[in-house]
């Protein structure tokens, strides 16, 4: 079995932020705050968050804040969106700096995006997707503001996106997809609503995502991709069906996607690395209890010690 090149992955992540003009940096410009969340969480899982200048990171995150509405943009000067607001809140939670937030304004922004049917729009333009239901519920839970939304309606909307195969889509009738399933299962777990899930039926659909090379895919007839090491496995763990896949084969698949010279993890072996797949590869290995990594919470997508601090601090 290959070994995890932890030190090289740390150097790769730190180098991404310094390179402002290369292709990876330019294509991520609109979602840089997501990239910061992926990179910083990876560093924390590798016990290396102290390699980052905390004050500088927090200062930049707060430059993405829109004090007129309470939401965060994907980069400085970009429009606010639920996807970016959750990443900002997660980053501040990593650093234990949620106190820099105007929690009332942020929770007002998030709750204001709930629609009459319980769904959530991503921003003022109105696109609806179960990803946004997860973002809203996870964000408000971290901020201890779940009372700001109609949780029952939010849960009912998510349940309405459940399909006959046990999976979930982005809207009612949408195709089951591993990424959407994580969003729906994560949101149901946070709200204490997993009784709505047929765990055996969903577990079967999810374990069928393991390919012959050991990796996991997002839906039938697709190639394996490292990012589904998170989307599929976290859902299986939440519904207690992770023992239905071959974990050692999945570990091998993730480790074979590393750039062993320069660091970083790609979607599949021998492809170009990026910070997105580096995070989901390391997070997947954390879920698989790979030695030396911090454990990660499968619903909140944050290290377990961070989640414990959020909810059990004395």
From TrEMBL:
Its EC number is 2.5.1.60. This is Geranylgeranyl transferase type-2 subunit beta. InterPro entries: PGGT1B-like, Prenyltrans, Ptb1, Terpenoid_cyclase/PrenylTrfase. It comes from Dioscorea cayennensis subsp. rotundata. Residues 4-301 form the Prenyltransferase alpha-alpha toroid domain. Its cofactor is Zn(2+). It is an enzyme of class 2 (transferase). The gene is LOC120263977. It catalyses: geranylgeranyl diphosphate + L-cysteinyl-[protein] = S-geranylgeranyl-L-cysteinyl-[protein] + diphosphate. It comes from the Eukaryota. Pfam families: Prenyltrans. Heterotrimer composed of the alpha subunit RGTA, the beta subunit RGTB and REP; within this trimer, RGTA and RGTB form the catalytic component, while REP mediates peptide substrate binding. Belongs to the protein prenyltransferase subunit beta family. GO terms for cellular component: Rab-protein geranylgeranyltransferase complex. The keyword Zinc applies. Keywords: Metal-binding, Prenyltransferase, Repeat, Transferase, Zinc.
